[in-house]
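Collaborator request, handled under Task 6.
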Amino acid sequence: MQEPRKPEAQPAQDENQIVAERRAKLAKLRTEGPAFPNDFAGADASAELAARYGARSAEELEKSPPEATIAGRLMLKRVMGKASFGVLQDGSNRLQIYVSDDHSGKDRHAAYKHFDIGDIVGARGVLFKTRTGELTLRVNELRLLAKSLRPLPEKFHGLTDQEQRYRQRYLDLLVNERARWVFEVRSRAIRALREFMSRQGYLEVETPMLQPIPGGAAARPFRTHHNALDMDLYLRIAPELYLKRLVVGGMEKVFEINRSFRNEGISTRHNPEFSMMEMYCAYTDYRYMISLVQELLREAAQASVGKTLLEYQGRQIDFGKPFAQLSIAQAIRKYAPEPWSDAQLRDREFLAARLRALGVEFGADQGWGSLQLVLFETIAEKNLIEPTFVTEFPAEVSPLARRKDSDPGITERFELFIDAKEIANGFSELNDPEDQAERFLEQSKKKDAGDQEAMYYDGDYVRALEYGLPPTSGAGIGIDRLVMLLTDSPSIRDVILFPHMRPEA
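Structure tokens returned to the collaborator:
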């Protein structure tokens, strides 16, 4: 299926009178029997009918007319005296129907004339080709299955009010072909991720969404209360610490496609509830995970949209060629206004001076590692359009990542940026329980000082590490942001079926 054209603008419509007229029709239907019957079954998919019979000539269909049953929403209706046409849309495609006094019966045809656009209709009959060559169902039996009380948006322009599209996604899906395409791509992409991981020998698992201690990321959690246990719980911000507990338990290759929740701002890149995939593999390091993520994304693109050269917001992004790699220091130097040395990029006073000159605020408690990351985000991140792995994050901002043996100030960590968006994050896992305990303590001090995104101290996770976590690498991939790229969608709300919104007035 090719990507459809985006809809054009549509004028507003007052629907009060239309709703009143349709309610009157429904009231009449109630006097005649079940207004919402549930005895129409066995419908064919319109797309399958088109695939099976669309190439046959009118003469072939006339010689042996195939019987078919279709059910769907009435999207177009043309009444012409003793004969009428219509278009039914089901979950796969659309099919034209032909209703007439001669073939359908005068009573059925008369009833059809009172149907409204948006009604759910069932029809049985035989297939034929019109003079223009369109596959059509000649109706012998016709049923109104569900009355639509509200009118659909104007048929030629679809639903274009962005906020209404997000609030009433059901309506968006009904009238905007592109919206349906986006979520078909999303489904194919997730299926491709799952199939790829299974072929690689990973076991799919499920971990708690309600956690006594939220961990695995620097983020502010949502809190709730369990009445029976009389304890506070948190919606997970990441499944990481539970997945690594499983590796401790001998499940050496695991992954989870999960919903996570972060109590943070909403933007074109952020939604409080989001989807990601995390995976962990024992006896590997971050270089293995870099290779795996690259291969995985390439396959997901091919499987979901049939290509690896993507068009995103007017720019081409190539998943097919090897992804670039830069350390954070290299990325800063590449886009810095003047040459800076490695020593300068680890000098807190130097970094502070550069950030002040750029008008960027920072805290007095932030060390050189934290300031280096802020400088990277300020001058380099916005330039990372083509897929780029950024590596060697400072230990200060990587509390779960393993330090480099040759340079303990940085970690074996990477983030993948595409179109200046973080798409994936991964590292060689920290498996030294004493080092992990110290880093949790540092995070706890930050939380006590008012940092609401700092991590909690997780004593049970430290205890798990004390039993022994083998050398392990792991990564997380943001599914929503990946689908944005695959579908050329400018906002994360375009790829989440029901994004969070402020309540309607």
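The cover message to the collaborator said: "Residues 311 and 317 are 6 Å apart (CA to CA). The longest strand covers residues 67-80. Please let us know whether this matches your experimental observations."
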